[in-house]
């Protein structure tokens, strides 16, 4: 009797194991088929999306069938506020070209620093400012290793290609505004410099970085907070509109023409370099 019961239990265990094995086999087979179908659909969707992007690019750039550029209002005297030389072409190139091609639009460029301060020469105190000794050491090495004059020439050359007259280029080299990733520029100083140019040039449109600075460079972000400070204190003329360059994630940043559909849907103002 005991042998019978023991044999029956072994038989039942074998049946259960076979059922579990069959269930797992069916599950793996079904999941594999589902995974293959999903990958195939994703590949087809990616191919379709690429085709749509290429078609949109052709329609926008070559055929000009679909309007992509959505401009700002009252853009008669436009001021671009940047932190360093090369910002004008790396971040604002298409927008600058859009305005310089307009007949009744004057474009100005304000660069807040051309002096690169090497990281090894930075010495921070508790207020997150750099020591004057560091500045003296940098200056003694020849105008911050000679980068200042070279970067100015590059800025003028770039603006010439973009269509900005040399007389409309405004360069500031303040000791409290070094080119350094980990130095926060004084908000009041940035506000004052920008406000002076807006008032003296009767600027109707001001364009600069947003709070994330596109590349999250500390100097870029400080310009945003300086301009935001002017808006909060109501120190900008009512006729002056302020616009910021939208920071996007890394994937969209390097998508090139694959970002066209997203820009059409998500961006209020946009420009494309023809």
Automatic annotation (TrEMBL):
GO cellular component, one term: endoplasmic reticulum
SUPFAM superfamilies cross-referenced by the UniProt entry: LmbE-like
GO molecular function term, any single one: N-acetylglucosaminylphosphatidylinositol deacetylase activity
Keyword Metal-binding: no
Electron transport found in the keyword field: no
Protein's name according to its UniProt entry: N-acetylglucosaminylphosphatidylinositol deacetylase
Xref: InterPro entries: GlcNAc_PI_deacetylase-related, LmbE-like_dom_sf
EC number(s) recorded for this UniProt protein: 3.5.1.89
Domain of life where this protein originates: Eukaryota
Keywords assigned: Membrane, Transmembrane, Transmembrane helix
Transmembrane segments: 42-63
Organism field: Exocentrus adspersus
Pfam families reported in the protein's UniProt record: PIG-L (PF02585)
UniProt record similarity statement: Belongs to the PIGL family.
